[in-house]
Amino acid sequence: MKTFAALLTITLAAQSLRAQIPAAEYAARRDSLAARIGDGVVVAFGGRTPITDFGPFYQLPAFHYLTNFDEPDAALVMVVRGGKGASTLFLTPVAPRSAFYYGRRPDSATVVRELRMGARSFSSIESVVDSLASSGLPLYSLTDFADADFASQDSLTRGRQFLRAIATRHNGLKTRDAHDIVDALRAKKSPAEIALLKKAAEISSEGHRAAMTLAEPTKEYELQAALEYAFMRLGGARPSYGSIVGGGVHGTQLHYMRDRGDVRPGDVVVMDAATEYEGYAADITRTIPVSGRYTAEQKELYQLVLDAQKAAERNSKPGMSAAAATDSSIVIREKGLAALGLIESVDAQIDMPWQTNCTQNPRSCRQSTFWMIHGISHGIGLAVHDPAQFYTGDHTFKEGDAFTIEPGIYISTSMLDALPDTPRNRRFIAKVKPVVAKYENSGVRIEDDYIITANGLERISNAPREIAEIEALMRTRPPRVVP
After folding, report:
1. SS3 for 245?
2. Distance between CA 94 and CA 71 in Å, rounded?
3. Do the beta carbons of residue 450 and residue 405 sit within 8 Å?
4. CB–CB of 122/93 below 8 Å?
5. What b/e readout covers 139-167, taking b as 16+ CB neighbours within 10 angstroms?
6. What is the pLDDT of residues 256-312, one digit of tens each?
7. Distance CA 461, CA 29 (A)
8. Cβ neighbours for 304, distance < 8 A, ≥ 6 positions apart
9. How far is CA 370 from the centre of its chain?
């Protein structure tokens, strides 16, 4: 357990890292975007002022990536000719009375001086873009959806309405989506970005240690509080995502975020929680025993998931296929589930409760997939699901990739109840249900954060993950004080 002095050292180190990404790097990002476009007009919208007083403003990742401007109600227009761009930020000043509540916003002179871009009033953006749309240059848009995972549903944003109106007024205007280009730039993390991700992972790891050393909890929110208190105390800005703290059956729900349920001795708790540091998001999961010791059955599942994670690590090196890393993790778990009697064989199939094409992808219909339904990896960065280089091209890991490895297994009889009533499923349920009872309500996920360097794979999260490590740390917990 870390001493106060050690924690203070972490806090001071975190503070010394602030503002590590210089203005020159943001300018270089815009230059890289311009070089890829050649000729065109980029119109990017930032986030809006929050419509309630229940939370602070956070800038949209793509807009922050290009501008480092973290104030609401702004837009970027970049005119690109011959691969060279000229950028202007369009600013919305805050009303004088509102400034006493929320603070002043940077003015045009500050933007020019500190961010190395031109600046104009937001009220002029429509006339400026209208004029540029008449120039014959294609228009590239970076719209203002809240999260890339839900971009198709977030269709009525201010930016999308603005661009739709421009296109309506200019017949024949060529419009293109710039997100793929910007995502390709974001996918390779710079040394400055990696430093911030490492700090986010370090702080997040301390949060998991704090949860492991908390006096034995009775409620999920006690663990959530321990995690998030450590994040904030050590310099994290906010949780990277809604903290997932699920005990017992709640641990079998992948994105359970209510965190209000009971945690009982004998249960395991899935804690998927991490912090954002200076805009960069970590993502860590640990599965711990409420009582401080895993049961024999919990150890079997936990070790199986840990072995699967380590197999993926061995196959996540520069030039190696991301699919090979995933496959190695799946094979380990398939064999283990078969050995435990939770599936009939590694290639046995069932009829899934969701639509899937078993012919094109036989693995999607395997019994094993039912117990481990999610993928094992995603990029991390300005968004917790950030672009990564292995998403595209030859789908291999490259220097500058930052990502997670997060295999899981989830077992409960309530999951069996979700299966369609078919002859194949009835046979499966009859065969495995007695075994499922042994592992009832056991969700196990282990997730760590990684970067690819010139030397190979580096794990940047370091919360205890071995069974013996976790149990040893939890033995240091103070006794629970009953009021």
Report:
1. strand
2. 10
3. yes
4. no
5. bbbbbbbeebeeeeeeeebebbebbeebb
6. 999 999 999 999 999 999 999 999 999 999 999 999 999 999 999 999 999 999 999
7. 27
8. 332, 333, 336, 337, 340, 409, 444
9. 23
DSSP assignments along 383-412, one per residue: SSSB--GGGSTT-B--TT-EEEE--EEEE-
Q: How many whole angstroms separate alpha carbon 10 and alpha carbon 203?
A: 8
pTM of the model: 0.94
- Give me the residue spans of the domains in the chain: 22-186, 190-474
What confidence tens digit (pLDDT) does each residue in 449-479 have? 999 999 999 999 999 999 999 999 999 999 9
Residue type, 223: L
| Least confident residue range of 48-57, 173-182, 197-206 | 48-57
CATH number given to 190-474: 3.90.230.10
**Whole-angstrom Cα distance, residue 242 to residue 419?**
28
DSSP-assigned beta bridge partners for residue 239? 275
Structure confidence at residue 2 as a pLDDT band (50, 70, 90): low
Q: Where are the alpha helices (DSSP H) in 94-251?
A: 96-102, 108-110, 125-133, 158-169, 179-187, 191-212, 220-233
pLDDT tens-digit series, residues 94-143: 989 988 988 899 999 999 999 999 999 999 999 999 999 999 999 999 98
* Confidence (pLDDT) at 145: 85
Q: From CA 332, how far away is CA 335, in angstroms rounded? A: 5
Q: Would you state the pLDDT for residue 438?
A: 96
CA-to-CA distance for 15 and 394, rounded, in angstroms? Answer: 39
The DSSP H or E segment spanning 414 is helix 413-416
Helix (H) or strand (E) holding 89: strand 84-91
Sign (positive or negative) of CA dihedral 70, 71, 75, 78: negative
Output phi, psi for 134, to 5 deg. Answer: -85, -5
CATH superfamily of this structure's domain 22-186: Creatinase/prolidase N-terminal domain (3.40.350.10)
Same fold, 22-186 and 190-474: no
105 half-sphere exposure, CB direction, 13 A CA radius: 20
How far is residue 157's CA from residue 155's CA, in Å, rounded to a whole number? 6
Those residues whose C-beta lies under 8 Å from the C-beta of residue 9, and which sit 6 or more positions away, are: none
Q: CB 299: neighbour CB atoms within 10 A?
A: 14
Any idea which residue has 């970027």 for tokens? 76
> SS3 helix, strand, coil % of the chain, rounded to 5?
40, 15, 40
Tokens 């968004």 map to which residue? 383
Residue 25 token pair: 């790097």
Give the span between the Cα atoms of 386 and 272, in whole angstroms. Answer: 17
